[in-house]
Amino acid sequence: MSEKEAVVEDENSSEEMFEHYNFVADPGQELLRIDKFLMDRIPNSSRNKIQIAAKSGHILVNNEKVKQNYKIKPLDEISIVMPYPVREHELIPENIPVDIVYEDDEVIVVNKESNMVVHPGYGNYSGTLVNALIYHFDQLPTNNQEHTGRPGLVHRLDKHTTGLLVIAKTESALTNLAKQFYDRTTERRYWAWVWGDVKEDGTVEGHVGRSIKNRKVMTVFSDGEMGKHAVTHYKVLKRYGYVTLVECKLETGRTHQIRVHMKSIGHTLFNDFEYGGDKILKGTTNSKYKKFIENCFDFLDGQALHAKTLGFQHPVTKEQIRLTSELPSGFQSVLDKWDKYTGV
Questions:
Q1: 90, 81 in Cβ contact below 8 A?
Q2: Catalytic residues
């Protein structure tokens, strides 16, 4: 998905049109109504808004206006054009508390809370970790013009994933840390609460990329030509029968990697609403158990995933930094409830 301020000429109107989105349908795209296609690709959109845009002539396929019932075909080029420029992502400093667990002249390590987006983007122009960071710290570096909205960032965590995140305070630190992540020399260990009884430790290796049917989520492709190479090692920390606490060690850092890799082996993350973990996947059918699970869900904003350990080489001193963090209160409360429920 691209968001760009390209001016589009409209032969039937004197009005300037600005291209806000541009998509090209995949070669394997199934026939799908354009309103459904775009709902899966534009954050915070609704079918009604997309249909209104189509009726107003703001949706083009291969440079031709289409109606809302048009069916997308493979390799169709879809544009969303509007009579106003794309909104600029101006970074606004905001006085939001940040849990800093390590800081020196070169780097900061924060313990990100749940329900916080890391950097501004469509639908999230404020309230992000970056908005907080630029309030507390001046002149955080960016690695290129395309990432000016992500100062200091070398990696990310999903909105509901909690835990440790390193931020660079200088350009040299940003370059050095980015290379460490690229070379896979960093250490990243996550604790994940997953559905099902994980029988043994193991490794998931499978290409991860955006789902062809739903671009909001990722999937594991068996075909090596799609997605990007991804490797997740996991080991059992504690079994509860219907659920298991595991530690996942990342070799690569793809979007939603742990979430889709664990789902691919039948162990969806607990309360992961984007991947079906927010309903009972294992256990009994009695009302007491159902109520217990619903109570557990209430303690979590989203998937039970916590970036517990982060290790990297300091970009200047070359000292090996290794930090660990406590589980957030909601995650810990769920563990405590299962300890009591199962007597394990």
A1: no
A2: 158
